[in-house]
Fold this protein.
Amino acid sequence: MNSRVELAVLGAGPAGVAAALAASECNVSVLILDRSASAGGQVYRRPTGPLGAQQLKKWPDEVKGERLREQLRSSAVSCRFERAVWSVERGFRIDTVGPAGVETWEAERLLVASGTTERVIPFPGWTLPGVMGLAAATALLKSQRVLPGQRPVVAGSGPLLWAVASGIVAGGGMPAAVIDLADTRRWVSSLPALFSRPTDLLKGLGWMHSIRRKQVPVISSAAVRKVWREGASLVVEVVERNRDGTLRREGQERRLSADALCIGHGLLPAIEVTRLLGADHVFDAQAGGWKPVIDDQQRTSIPGLFAAGDCTGITGAEAAQLEGRLAGLTVAHEAGRITDKLYRMKAQSLRRHNLRVSRVGASMAALMMPAESFIDDIPGDTVVCRCEDVTCAEVQAALAAGAMGLNQIKSWTRCGMGPCQGRVCGDTVAAIASRHLGGRTAVGAWSPRVPLVPLPMDDFVGAFTYHDIAIPKAAPL
Amino acid sequence: MGQIEYDTAVIGAGLMGASTALFLARSGMRCVLLDRSGVCSEASGVNAGTLTMQMTRADLIPYAIKGWEMWTNSQEWLGFNPGVVAAPGLSLAFTEEEVATLEHRAAARRARGAQIELLTASKARSIEPGLSTEVIAASYCPMDGFAKANQTGFALHQALKTARVDIHGACRVERVEPEDRGYAVIGRGEVVRARRLVLAGGVWLEEMLNWLAVRIPIKTLVNQLAVTERIEPVMRTVIGIASGLLSLKQFDNGTVVIGGGWQGKGSRTTGSTQVIPENLIGNVRLAVHAIPHLVHTRLVRAWCGFEAETADAMPVIGEVPGINNAFLIGSIHSGYTSGPFMAKLLAQYILGHEPELPLFDPSRLVDNESYLKNDVN
């Protein structure tokens, strides 16, 4: 057991690092835990160095990431990387697993800054090799400096679409096409929010410009209907949408040849920890889905438990940093390390700033939100739970047979029972069920389960002899 | 006063309640089954699915044998097979002390009809090649196996619909009120009336009995379970240990379920449960110690299920003491194995037949004094 700290932070992305630094600057003892080998999270991910032949230019966010890591290094925050959190208890006890084996940590307060999970709405062929999420493609580009393909189709919605496409262009690739789910009108409607943050606007325009300059074909208001393999290539079938969001009929599709397909339909708040601890959650489609209820000081409904960043609703990295900072200050204030006056002043300024910044993030999240009808377009024989090979028709059959909620669908079909613990299929299955059971709130969510990540058995059990096992008293005969 | 709509209202749609309703309905009774969630949503749907003699209390062996026969014939009486696999069971000993326990327990169970014999380690390994070389002896029973607990609810739900049992899911019963010719079962926003009551509330049986001012203390056990990812076949028997604190089996999809009654934390009042990391590590170490190959896999999920236990750790099946036309069923050790048979016995009794085997009269456990005392407090 490690010594008890005043604050443990789960996740070393923008929100977690900002919180850790803010609290630590006020002399709060802080421990930050992350699964990766270094801080940065997904956005400010640290490159692991050149792996393949494809040397890419410095990713623009890399500079910010380097600054963040430098700040952390020169702080009093105690950092423990390569630790995956597998269990959390109120009070707070955190159990991790990693190359260092099984470890237990204790903290008076806990901040969850676990970021997001990517959403991919299933379509025929989405589980083929060469098909990956936009976030996965971003990770490849940023961390490994590897192109997901030389001529991939980049499809889906939201800013990641353009970030990935322009990253591929910058790395010397040539996307076969960019398929944007949104139509131009939806982008235009988000412009007012963007104008309030010129840097974001410029970043976005820069991405789009690099794509146009290379004459990458861009198809707006269109979706990938299916993908299959022909020889060494993937064939991606694209179909445009009608004004009401429905897909155009057969015979109007286009087929594109590509060596990979990067596709994503937005991001979901990663709420495993806050759910496991039993905090109150609320469904907010605009924010990406279920999110913990937090007050304007980043407190959840559980005393001592805080949350900040995209795991409280998708608003982007800048907002995450501000929320993290606010959470860190609230912890310091609760611990009596800063005065009421100073806290109120700082908190107010952070909140004001955040209001503007998060508007951009929220409008981007709204842009990423796929239409409800997309769920109805999933063909029956398409696998929705890729861990357990459960098809859309099997989920619908369970509902038709009388399944009364997500947990019963899980029991009856095994969807969500695989190694990903339902992270990949959970949102899709809930959306399918909500069409039958009357809304996402009625459908609820799967019972949270440990381990939060699959536990490699050898790390978990360690070296032991039979006599090390404290076997309880025998059951009665 | 409203119209009596049902012959019997069963409260609690776990394995016991749902099977009782099923057998009553098949004998012509009009039944309603009420549950705050769905069919087999609690212990009956999340237990390890073990169908074993070697972990069953010796006095329940005759019932467990009948239950095992029903499970392995589930297509016949249930109309659906929830993944039942009949496989031999091995209970292992790693120390001389455990060998003595094995011998003692095997003898007691054998005396009640279970075919259990002691094997040398090499004989045990010829049956289960993946066994650890640290095993020094094992007891063997050909009558063992498992079902998929998560499929049980689906199977019963379909069977109940076919038998025309009205299933009121997501219906939390708040109280029952005796009326002239039966009972009013009052839930949130609905009342159903039935001539008879069957209380089948698992760990919540004590609270249900309080509706009728009857006090039978029920203890809550919080059993932990865990499952691996899908792996290649590594075992083909059901593995236990002498003390009963391990149950290990591999399902046809490749996952290995690890159980044995290691305790987690939880409260039946809030319904929340929590895995205790140390106990999970202990349970998993035991599994790895028995089947060493498991060290090469990953653990993907752990969870808890409630188990009910009476003061004498024996079941309560019969009439609610002192109350007309009210019955209860529950607290059956290794209840998943014998459950369908126990339900059949209670249904036989309610229908006025002589049960095939004796019931377990709950009146032995009534503790109205402490009930009254608690009431005053």
In short: The two ends of chain A are 37 Å apart (CA to CA).
